[in-house]
Amino acid sequence: MKSLKLTIATLVLGVIACSPKANATDLFATTQLKSESKLELAQTNLKDAEKYFNGGNTKTMRGDYQGAIADYTKAIQINPQLALAYLNRGAARIKLKDYQGAMADSTKAIQINPQLAEAYLNRSFARIQLKDYQGGIADSTKAIQINPQLAEAYLNLS
């Protein structure tokens, strides 16, 4: 229904803007309506991303890691800057022993938010499983630098 409203609004705005009698006030109103429609659409998208993110968390808690990965992927498709979705998808991939996928997700989470200690922790674990011990130690060390209270990071160093 929202897409229908958006289509109708866009159609009406196009008619106003193309009208030979359109003046600056009409064009301003048209621009303002377009901006409001974009804001409404962005807010709807964020709510959808949050819904899938929360669904992924619920599925993770139930042990449905494949379902969680699917939900986190949908959240990422809606909002590619959602670092926590990459983080949690990486953690689910670790549970399924997809260490390459976990490393990729952790790296993307770090690119988005370099202060996300848990992403370094996940990547450290994946690297250790792939026998990249130096990379694992470097990531655990970085996680500890960011958050000295992250006990799991110390375990990866032992």
- Mind summarizing the main beta sheet? none
Report low-confidence residues grouped into runs of 5 or more.
1-33
Structural class designation: mainly alpha
Query: What order do the SSEs take from the amino end to the carboxyl end, as H and E?
Result: HHHHHHHH
Strand content: under 5%
Helix content: over 70%
Overall residue-averaged pLDDT value: 79
**Strand elements, count:** 0
Distance between the first and last residues' Cα: 56 Å
Overall geometric form: globular
Question: Would you write up a description of this structure?
Answer:
The protein is mostly helical. It is 83% helix and 0% strand. It contains 8 helices and no strands. Helix 4 (83-95) packs parallel to helix 6 (117-129). The radius of gyration is 22 Å and the shape is globular. The model is unreliable at 1-33 (pLDDT under 50).
Brief descriptors of the model:
158 residues, 83% helix, mainly alpha, single chain, disordered N terminus, globular
Short description, anyone?
By secondary structure, the chain is an all-alpha fold. The chain has helices spanning 2-18, 24-62, 65-78, 83-95, 99-112, 117-129, 133-146, 151-157.
